[in-house]
Give the backbone structure.
Amino acid sequence: MTDPASPPEITSGDGLRFWLDTAVVSVADIRLELGGGLTCEDVKEELPEGAGCVQSGDAPSTVTLAGPFFIDLDSGVSSQGEKELRIPPGKYRRIDFVLWEGGFKASTRLDRGSQSWTMKLTLPEGTALGFEVPHALAVEEGGSLRVTFRQSTWLKDLPLGACLQSGDLPRTDSEVILNAATGQCQGAGDTVREALRTQGALGARPF
């Protein structure tokens, strides 16, 4: 996640503010495309347990991790039982993965005076995601390759404040129901899911 202060703020296109309480994701079939001319031969000695590397014809060599891995996006902590999500040092230019059981789940909160409503943002199991960079990113020993979900983009194309006021964004006593939006916000659930799926970035950290 970007802006990892607690709790991060997510704002709609017309300024309605939500607070991000939790965001978790489970992923599997992770494929990391090597860059910088590297091949499987260059990384095979550093592959962790459970990882592999494939080369098919003229396609770039790709490090693979079957998973599944469960990741708390707020803290960045990942786990696979007792196993740590690790990749070998190298240069990478693309990541692809599939959402596993539970998919992507974020819980946001709308506060109005003494009242609060939850709004859930989700992507289903089986959704495929992929992010790439124009130039390969170097990951040194002890470093990390990071996928960033840009929460500032999730609601920016929706006038949720106006829709809430008009009734086009329905709510119960405890929940704002994004998938039931009508009027100006018709299809809001699909709009958010598309932003969740596509608005990400790939970066590297030295440690």
DSSP finds three helices and eleven strands in the chain. The longest helix spans residues 188-198. Residues 1-6 have pLDDT under 50 and may be disordered.
